[in-house]
Specification:
It contains 10 helices and 9 strands. Helix 3 runs parallel beside helix 4. The longest helix has 29 residues.
Length: 289
Amino acid sequence: MTSKTVLITGCSSGFGYGCVNAFLEQGFRVVATLRDADTRKELFRDLLNRYESHLYVASLDVTDGEERKSIANLLETKFGGQLDCLINNAGFGLFGALEDTSEAQIREQIEINLMGTVFLTRQLLPFIRAAKGRIINMSSVLGYMALPLSSMYAASKFAIEGFSESLRYELSSHGVKVCIVEPGGFRTRFADNQRWGEDAFNQNSAYRTQTDNYSAFQNKQRTGAGTPPDAVIKACVHLATARCPPFRVRCGNDAQMAYFLQCLLPSRFLDFLLNTMFDRVFHGRRGHD
């Protein structure tokens, strides 16, 4: 029996890299994609040695139309057009006040996190429909509860939520299942790869105090033991293999708590609670003015 094929984007680290190993262990043929793969195959040396016939590493910049077409051609020629699961994981976080963020940075955030997912999914949908397969989109706790200084990252993830929900209904009659993973904070290289608005640390920025305090808070969080990404990787495998997978899976205590508070608390009380918390983190104050 032919192994199922999964294509994963953003495999250089974190959730993507962990999913490569987990799906190989499950017997999948894995197409692991990342930018400039030819110069970074060393990342997969051990896995290639162990799973040479089941692992294919390919270059893919999800914002590049020609590279998206090349991936579709690769699936057609090398795998006979078989694609049972697409995991849209590629992305990064842009932080900082909107005024401190350049137009180019905003466009890049939306282009990679949202448009890359949309256009790659569209490109590969004929294969996924033929297999009656799965689409798994990586969202975030910031896809349903936004923080200050995260407007563009949150916008991209809120959009992924809406895109996925609509696509779920659109494709259900075709036998395709669409799912979302909503991670909270895990110990990956996400923080190392995040970017700040180009004027975020400018002395003249009206938001400099908020930025400094938030940056210090993030740095403090990084120094702890952290939570390994196992729960997110396990969730992706479950969504790809379960007969009736749920639409959303929230991973991490912070993601669960955020959702619980949204469901439980009246909106005005939740707003007061969040404003109080944000005042402490972003302004260094103990209460809301």
